[in-house]
Design a protein that fits this description.
It contains 5 helices and 11 strands; from the N terminus they run E-E-E-E-H-H-E-E-E-E-E-E-E-H-H-H. The protein has 225 residues and is an alpha+beta fold. The chain has a single domain, classed as Nucleic acid-binding proteins (OB fold (Dihydrolipoamide Acetyltransferase, E2P)). Strand 1 and strand 2 form a beta hairpin. Helix 3 packs across helix 4, helix 3 crosses helix 5 and helix 4 packs across helix 5. Keywords: Exosome, RNA-binding.
Length: 225
């Protein structure tokens, strides 16, 4: 419930994603041609080397070298069409193909709108909080390969310690969603800290979920106060 003077608005907990210009989204490539749900035009892609030039027929033919069906990407909403479909772009090197990590899908209404949706958390992993309800959790990269234009993926084995952090974060996000708490960097981090006394698998037990989210909620209230 949101109140502005005498106006009371009620937001549904489960909603269909309605794109807005500037939104950060995480999505899966369904076709390497004109898409139906959202469109990523070749002209809106940052080519390897970061080249800003007119796209050629060779670029179009080589697109499958960069993106294929099933690939996950992060992108920004460039425009919204009258039928609700969105046009995306990946012109910044912070966007592009996603490599090794874990995808969690939640209701878009539970993702809090912030100035940035890319977060390197101090616990040792990073998250992309897609406005469309797709959350990507991945090992924090040591450095960004700018020459690749956001299309290379690191396929080196992920250390067990990183996998444990990612798994714990994933279960914490599931707990927050189950208890209907908004997702943003601080709520996720507080929940992660509250979960540390518990085994990763135990976080999904209803009584543990309730306990750690209650502690998270109290910390957030203390922060606001």
């Amino acid at each position: 419930v949101e109140r502005v003077n005498k106006l009371v608005c009620v937001k549904a907990l489960k909603t269909r994603y309605n794109g807005e210009v500037g939104d950060i989204v995480v999505g899966r490539i369904t076709e390497v041609k004109l898409g139906l749900d959202s469109v990523l035009l070749l002209s809106s892609v940052n080519l390897p080397g970061g080249e800003l030039r007119r796209r050629s027929a060779e670029d179009e033919l080589a697109m499958r070298d960069y993106l294929q069906e099933g690939d996950l990407i992060s992108a920004e909403v460039q425009s919204v069409f009258s039928d609700g479909a969105v046009s995306l772009h990946t012109r910044s090197l912070k966007y592009g193909k996603l490599g090794q990590g874990v995808l969690v899908q939640v209701s878009p209404s539970l993702v809090k709108r912030q100035k940035t949706h890319f977060h390197d958390l101090p616990c040792g992993a990073s998250v992309i909080l897609g406005n469309n309800g797709f959350i990507w959790i991945y090992p924090t990269p040591e450095q960004k390969d700018e020459e690749a234009g956001g299309f290379t993926t690191n396929l080196e084995p992920v250390p067990l310690s990183d996998r444990e952090v990612i798994s714990r974060l994933r279960n914490c996000i599931v707990a927050l969603v189950t208890q209907k708490l908004m997702l943003f960097d601080t709520s996720i981090l507080y929940c992660y800290e509250a979960s540390l006394p518990h085994q990763i698998k135990d976080i999904l037990k209803p009584e543990v979920m309730e306990e750690i989210v209650l502690e998270t909620r109290q910390k957030l209230l203390d922060l606001e106060g």
